[in-house]
């Protein structure tokens, strides 16, 4: 009988904690700009950090948020392979207010 109670208590605790995590996931969800992922895909993805950012995703986030305008900071990037597709993509996908992301080579 004691084992059954212990199992029920653990089951209830598991359900309660699972519900808490599910609620926290909904409340704390951070909506990410999908353009960050798209720009990151077009970077070399060496995650070398020579651009001064922690990795390619951090560089992509800085580009999309307008904190980084110089694509040449990505040393391994090649203009035609990596940078032109980024410029074209961001030209086609402007900011919510319609303004263009300010980037240059
Ligand atoms: S320099 Fe280029 S390849 Fe290296 S982390 Fe920065 S964006 Fe990625």
What string gives the helices and strands in order? HHHH
Q: Sheet bearing the most strands, described? A: none
Helix/strand-derived class? mainly alpha
Distance between the first and last residues' Cα: 73 Å
Number of helices: 4
Number of domains: 2
CATH class of the largest domain: Mainly Alpha
Low-pLDDT segments: none
Q: Kindly state the mean pLDDT as a whole number?
A: 94
Corresponding CATH architecture of the largest domain: Orthogonal Bundle
Question: Which fold name corresponds to the CATH topology of the largest domain?
Answer: 3-methyladenine DNA Glycosylase II, Chain A, domain 3
> What is the rounded Rg?
22 Å
CATH homology group of the largest domain? Electron transport complex subunit B, putative Fe-S cluster
Bound molecules: iron/sulfur cluster
- How helix-rich are the residues, as a percent range? 55-70%
So what's the overall shape? elongated
- How many distinct beta strands? 0
Strand content: under 5%
Can you offer a commentary on this structure?
- The protein has two domains: 1-30; 34-92, Electron transport complex subunit B, putative Fe-S cluster (3-methyladenine DNA Glycosylase II, Chain A, domain 3, Orthogonal Bundle), CATH 1.10.15.40.
- Helix content is 55%, strand content 0%.
- The protein has helices at 2-27, 34-42, 56-64, 79-92.
- The radius of gyration is 22 Å and the shape is elongated.
- The structure holds iron/sulfur cluster.
- The site of iron/sulfur cluster has 16 residues, from helix 3.
- Iron/sulfur cluster (SF4) is lined by residues 43-44, 46-51, 53, 55-56, 59, 74-77.
């Amino acid at each position: 009988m004691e084992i059954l109670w212990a199992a029920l208590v653990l089951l209830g605790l598991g359900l309660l904690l699972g519900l808490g995590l599910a609620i926290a996931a909904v409340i704390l969800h951070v909506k990410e700009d999908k353009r960050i992922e798209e720009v990151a895909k077009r970077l070399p993805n060496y995650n070398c950090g020579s651009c001064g950012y922690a990795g390619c995703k951090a560089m992509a986030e800085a580009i999309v948020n307008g904190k980084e305008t110089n694509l040449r900071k990505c040393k391994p990037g090649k203009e035609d392979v990596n940078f032109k597709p980024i410029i074209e993509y961001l030209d086609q996908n402007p900011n919510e207010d319609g303004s263009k992301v300010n980037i240059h080579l």
